Amino acid sequence: MKLKNIRVAHSPDADDIFMYSAINLGWVGSEILQFSSKADDIETLNQAALRGEFDATAISFALYPFIVKDYALLRTAVSFGNGYGPKLIKKKHTTLKPNFKVALSGQYTTNALLFKIAYPKARIVYKNFLDIENAVLSGEVDAGVLIHESILSFSDELCVEREIWDIWCELRGDDSLPLPLGGMALRRSLPLSDAIECESVLTKAVQIAHDNKKILSSMLLERKLVRVDDTSLQKYLGLYANAESISMSDLQLRAVDRLFEIGYENGVYSNLIKSQPNLIPTEYLNSRNS
Cα–Cα distance between 70 and 174 in angstroms, integer? Predict the structure, then answer.
């Protein structure tokens, strides 16, 4: 039987590569689906999702209300911050004016959503996340928001002006909610059985990666598939590719809903949506097989 190909897109940062590697390595597979993957920076993937380019794709959670008609939300391969997250950085010994110029990693990123609410007068330019630190160092911009592995290590000429986590805490209300950063979306046009199988395989891949973290980390480092050393990789995976990345909990779903509410309350989204009705209805197979 010819397997249906599912085109998957994920970012090139260490947590996405780690979580998807079990599929690339053949540690998990499907009897009805095969997977091909592409890696690109998260805002490129957000823009591609708006055009419906991939069957399954990593997205910023803040993008999802814009693609809700075309994509369902997956429970797996998610990244949340809990006491940490993107960082607004500037040069040391400088003071930011209300209309400071800032580099963000993309229009539809979660950090951009929260930043723009907190700093409505800032002048924003968008850059690839790998170029933001140098843009601040060169004086091209007054500040920048670092994401991914960049939050772990940056020039000692720079300092943190504010944590995006702190902005989230001020806006969220409920003091228990983690910060929703990145998730996965799946094209709604896929047959439901394929959608359920796709989520199942991706969930197994994240579970297997988590269960075999030491072995897989070594393989990624040996093959130079990540941009950091072993110490930074372990720290980063602990933040963004951990047991809570395998399948979203009720608390995480509440956090996603609160993010959508914040966007709606601030005029970013024209409609208020909830996460639960937009998940893949995996209970379908259970009822069919009972």
Answer: 30
